[in-house]
Amino acid sequence: MATPHISAEPGDFAPAVIMPGDPYRADRMAKLVLREPKVISDVRGIRAYTGTVDGKRLSIMASGMGMPSISLYATELYRFFGVERIIRVGTAGGISPEVARGDVIVAVGAHTTSSMNELRIPSVHFSAVADFPMAAAAVAAALGDPLVKTGTILSEDHFYFKAPGAMEALEAHRVLGVEMEAAGLYGVAAAEGGAALAVLTVSDHLVVPGRDMTSEERETLFTRALDLALAAAFA
Ligand code: HPA
Question: Domain with 216 in it: what CATH number?
Answer without folding.
Answer: 3.40.50.1580
